[in-house]
Design goal:
Helix content is about 0%, strand content about 50%. The chain has no helices and eleven strands. The termini are far apart. About 30% of the residues are buried.
Length: about 130
């Protein structure tokens, strides 16, 4: 599966933003998807994840109540994944990645378990 993120940019603190991830391939809906953030010089950390069916989701504590992950599996070969972010907090040059892992029934928290990655979308939130 191939992944492509979009939606990043220079944003204002307190505002909303929706990041998108397109998953292409034979069976993208068989994968669980995780949204990760990576700040300069730091490791990649899971922000939110969603199972293949959308029935199971995970949120890291810092984003609970502010971020919502969702997916649209309507098309067999292209799935749309979203990370709706609200009440953004100032941060500089953080890259958000979407990753795919199978089987898709379980969201994994470790980036090492993910098989496929997009190139990321950079988010800068100014105060």
């Amino acid at each position: 599966v191939q992944l492509a993120e979009s939606g990043g940019g220079l944003l204002q603190a307190g505002g909303p933003r929706r990041l998108s991830c397109s998953a292409y391939g034979r069976t993208p809906s068989s994968y669980a998807i995780g949204w990760f953030r990576q700040a300069p010089g730091e490791e990649r950390h899971l922000v939110a994840g969603i199972s293949w069916s959308g029935n199971s989701t995970f949120y890291a504590d810092p984003v609970k109540g502010r971020f919502t992950i969702s997916r649209d599996n309507a098309k067999n070969t292209v799935n749309a994944l979203y990370l709706q972010m609200s009440r953004l907090k100032p941060e500089g040059g953080v890259v958000y990645y979407c990753g795919a892992v199978s089987p898709g029934s379980l969201v994994r928290s470790s980036s090492a378990e993910y098989e496929y990655w997009g190139r990321g979308t950079k988010v800068t939130v100014s105060s």
